[in-house]
Amino acid sequence: MKITFIRPNMNARKASDALQPLVFALLAGLTPPDIETTLYDDRIEDIPFDEPTDLVAMTVETFSAKRAYDIAARYRKRGVPVVMGGFHPTLVPKEAAQHATTIVVGDAESIWPQLIADFQQGRLQPTYRATALPSSLNIFFDRRMFEGKSYPPLSLVQWGRGCPHQCEFCSIHAMYDTYQYQRPIDDVITEVEALDSQWLFFVDDNLFAYTKQFTRLLEALKPLHLHWSCQISLEVSYDKTLMTLLEQSGCQAVLIGFESLQLSNLRQMNKLWNVSKLDYATAIKRFYDHGIMVCGTFVLGYDDDTPDSFEQCFDFALTHKLFLSNFNPLTPFPGTPLYRRLQQEGRLIRENWWLDEHYQYGQAVFHPKQMSAEELEQGCFDARRRFNTRASILQRAFHLKANMRNWRNAVFHCAANMINRKEVLRKQGAFLGEHF
Ligand code: SF4
Question: Which atom belonging to ligand 1 lies closest to the Cα atom of 169?
Answer without folding.
Answer: 7
